[in-house]
Write a structure and sequence with these properties.
alpha+beta, Immunoglobulin-like, 9-stranded antiparallel β-sheet, 6-stranded antiparallel β-sheet, 6 helices, 19 strands, 16% helix, 43% strand, globular, disordered N terminus
Length: 286
């Protein structure tokens, strides 16, 4: 494995040359010694390890803001489930666009391509889901990274669905970090439209007008329902829907969330490109 500093330096260099800005979502690695991230936040190796155990990866920690760091630096969790999936979105010569899961080999072989076998591939992206027990609750985390930039920048939806006698027991935290062609990095965590359901939660947000790459992060805590017996398994679906044409925030908000992911109303379903969930499963005795 490459050393942590080399991996982080690679992320920064990719941004500087404006090839892309995709936060590193390889397997997390511990840090030896203190670390200072892009925003000048100094953290100890113990704090860095805590962030990894909450589902953040190296790239997310490197571009973490003071607010997010302060919210998480003292939480003692354990990363017990982490699933990373790879996707490509294709615009065929005829017909509508579609997104399918691909293997890591295909992703890394073609992630920078604009054309593949006569079909125009608009983007490749990765989606990572993770589960971490923290005290008496579990943290569900979803991270979506664009590798190729989509042509439509409208209102997208990121969501986490779940099953099994649990409920959201915190606010939904959402923010995204994106790079620009001049080499700068911006993290935005304004008041987005966050929706709470009995079977999950979602955030509706508008993509920035221009960017060289973007990673969006969403997480919340879940607790057992009152009166629930022993829970033996947890299942979460990290899902994402990209608007393929200009939509309003109200149209994007016209959806539900459950273990199958995001479900749009019939009036807007054809305006979004959907993708298979990044599912995480965990056997528990809770």
């Amino acid at each position: 494995m490459k050393k942590n500093k080399r991996a982080l330096r690679h992320v920064v260099m990719c941004l500087i040359v404006a090839v892309t800005f995709v936060v590193n979502v390889t397997s997390p690695r511990a840090l030896v010694g203190n670390f200072t991230n892009y925003y000048g936040i100094e953290m100890t190796s113990e704090q860095y390890e805590r962030l990894l155990n909450l589902g953040f990866d190296e790239g997310q920690i490197n571009y973490m803001t003071q607010e997010i760091f302060d919210q998480n630096k003292d939480l003692e969790g354990t990363l017990v489930s982490r699933v990373q999936k790879y996707y490509k979105t294709v615009y065929p010569t005829y017909g509508t666009s579609y997104t399918v899961e691909v293997t890591p080999d295909e992703y890394y072989a073609h992630k920078d391509d604009n054309e593949l076998r006569g079909q125009v591939v608009t983007n490749y992206k990765t989606h990572t889901s993770s589960i971490s027990p923290v005290g008496n609750y579990y943290r569900f985390n979803s991270t979506l990274s664009w590798n190729n930039i989509p042509s439509v920048h409208s209102y997208d939806v990121q969501a986490i669905g779940f099953t099994g006698y649990i409920h959201i027991d915190s606010t939904i935290t959402f923010y995204y970090t994106y790079g620009q062609s001049n080499g700068s990095v911006t993290t935005s965590y304004s008041n987005y439209n966050k929706q709470y359901f009995s079977t999950g939660g979602s955030t509706v947000f508008k993509l920035p007008s221009s960017f060289t790459g973007l990673t969006s992060t969403m997480y919340f805590n879940v607790a057992k329902d009152s009166g629930a017996g022993t829970i033996t398994s947890l299942h979460m679906c990290a899902d994402y829907a990209h608007a393929t044409q200009t939509v309003t925030g109200q149209e994007a908000s016209s959806h539900t969330v459950n273990i199958l992911g995001i479900g749009f109303s019939q009036s807007v379903i054809n305006k979004f490109d959907t993708m298979p969930c990044a599912d995480s499963y965990l056997s528990v005795n809770w």
